[in-house]
Amino acid sequence: MLNLADSQIALAQAVRQQNASFLGENTDRHRINIYARLVRNNTFSFIDRCYVETQKHISPSDWLHLKERFVCEGKSNSPYFQDIAEQFLQFCRKKSAVSATILELMDFEQAQLLAEVAIADVPQEFEWDNNVIMQLSSATQLRQYSVNFISSHFNVLEKMPVYVIIWRNSNFDVIYQRVDELDFLLFNLLSDNPLSFNSIATKLNEIGYNSLKLLQVLQQRWQTWIEQDVIYPFK
């Protein structure tokens, strides 16, 4: 007779494989089939809700097969939407189940979910000047990809290096935007350590970015990203 721990493992295997024989000959096969369908319905639904654009670049049969492989072979043991989506991405990476291009698109869609569920109190109003210590929003994700799917609104996966920022604003909207090297440098400086604008300008001067025109452009970018809820005073 199986102990409790072994019974739980056997039940999980029976549900994953849709095979009641893992639990012995006297197991109610109908009950196991119901559990298996429930697990698949929930898991498949979570994956489809996260990877909306990704599945458009994979045939329906291959997409279904990939989700089924994840249930059968993966180690997902969480009931939470964001955990299942992350574990599915990790499974696809580990198994090399899709191309590197598709993995980048999947990473982007997962980053959108991370921005959505991030614990962050994004203020709607605040006072600041160039000496106020500012931070990058905790509801922000920075990504660098070798594929540009942003410009075509996900219709074309073009081989082209791009920088992308994904963030959640104070209205709980999740937004993404392609950015240039200057923005990406600015965000990375802030992600490493909260800084004031004047401190950022000093750091850029130290590494050779010291033109007046650049500082003017940077000041405009700083203002823009504050208005977009990407940068706000450090708490």
Would you identify the regions where 5 or more consecutive residues have pLDDT less than 50?
A: none
Helix content: 40-55%
**What percentage of the residues does DSSP assign to strands (E)?**
5-15%
Tally of strands? 5
Highest-level CATH class of the largest domain: Alpha Beta
Could you tell me the mean pLDDT?
88
SSE arrangement, N to C: HHHHHEEEEHHHE
The second-level CATH architecture of the largest domain is: Alpha-Beta Complex
Total number of distinct structural domains? 2
Oligomer state equals single chain
Structural class: alpha+beta
Main sheet strand line-up? 2-3-4
Gyration radius, rounded: 23 Å
Q: Looking at the structure, what is the overall shape?
A: elongated
Description:
- The chain is 51% helix and 14% strand.
- It is α+β, with helices and mostly antiparallel strands and 235 residues long.
- It folds into 2 domains: 4-98, DUF2063 (DNA polymerase, domain 1, Orthogonal Bundle); 117-233, Outer Surface Protein A, domain 3 (Alpha-Beta Complex).
- It has a 3-stranded antiparallel β-sheet with strand order 2-3-4, with helices on both faces. A two-stranded antiparallel sheet has the order 1-5.
- The longest helix has 22 residues, at 29-50.
- The protein starts with a helix and ends with a strand.
- 22% of the residues are buried.
- The model has no long low-confidence stretch (mean pLDDT 88).
- Residues 137-226 form the NGO1945-like C-terminal domain.
